[in-house]
Amino acid sequence: MLQNIVIGQYVPVTSPLHRLDSRSKLISLLALAVIVFLANEFWSYLALLATVVLFVALSRVPLRFFVKGLFPVFILIVFTFLLHAFFTNEGYVLFSILGFSIYSGGIEQGVFIAIRIGSLVILASLLTLTTKPIDLTDGFEFFLRPFKRFGLPAHEMALMMSISIRLIPTLLLEADRIMKAQAARGADFTKGTMKTRLETMTAFIIPLFVRSFKRAEDMATAMDARGYRGGEGRTKLRVLQWRLQDTIACIVVGGVGVVLAILRDF
Amino acid sequence: MVEVALMTALALILSFVSFPGPWAQGGSVSLMMVPIFIMAFRHGWRVGVLTGLLVGIVNLMYNAYIVHPIQLLLDYPLPYAALGLAGLFAIRNRTGKLSLGWALLGLLFAAFLRFLSHGISGVIWFGSLAPDGMNVYLYSFVYNASYLLPEVLITLSVLYMISRAQPEFFNMKSRNSVVTS
Questions:
Q1: CB contact (8 A) between residue A219 and residue B2
Q2: Which residue(s) pair with A97 in the sheet?
Q3: Cα of A206 to nearest chain B Cα, Å
Q4: Residue span of the structural domain in which A98 resides
């Protein structure tokens, strides 16, 4: 029941985007999320679309991964497109259907909004498709570090994040084992009324919690035994490196922002 | 600390064990809130908020659904962190037993905060897309309630059953170490 779940989206291929530092990718994504909203007429949307296509091509990730990421928002895109098509009354009437007049302005607005949502979703999935969660965690830690003086436990948070990321597959396996064990005792997770289903659910969830608490305690003991003392003066196995290509990436993103701001219709 | 990490992982896993529903614009009914609430009641609201925050961020890395910069903040880290505030209501009697009435109130309060966060986020991002004149407030709040309400009910019943079967889940064990808790 749990095996066919695919977690994480990282696609391990080599590409210029994969080689970038996770920090520069985080900055770029943040900047691009704002830049997307700059576009407001034909040429700026075209430039935006071109940028997204360029980045997708650079990532060398098979297109079906993007299609998969876009699928859940597809309904939303169609929905907003129809809303705009029916309720915007600008431009000239293209045709009338069921008493509604479809205006050219409505179609235009609908297409623009569809591009806007589509590019935001694609840009965000580009980050997770080309960056390992563990690298992202390191990137987060870097940006959280300045907040340390306000009492934010940056190192601890990053450590907890990497532990939980590491343990997701392990716990998934454990959950699967418990499910099978309970099924062997006659539990049926798919049938029954709401009440019996909740009861079988509890029979699955309680052992899962017990074992997780146990594992947490064992792990804490192991870390204590190895003399773990927190963030001060710790070295790292993986060190993030800011290279020339990262600076170039940030400049390119900034350039896209400038181009869109110029093309934009005020 | 390790416990927080484990519970975060657990919350993520439980989010996969979701009940399929007609929620096309994000959100689904799952048991994801259970670990956050357990941590909040077990170790107090600080740890609860921390667990929630981590769940939000890791969830963001795994199943991101981003349509607006502010929506990112209001749909991922914030609502889950707010769930941890349920720990504010973890009031114990002299024997250290949790008061169920207060816990229930805390759970509902925290779930309401999460609802508010998702709701406002919906108003912001959907409002930026929807044509003028549409009631985005009504739309967003009704939409978010449609999956949060069943989720809260299920979480509530599962937590109730846990409290019947394993009340010690909600009691913290003190231990002097940097890494525990």
A1: yes
A2: A100
A3: 7
A4: 2-158+237-264
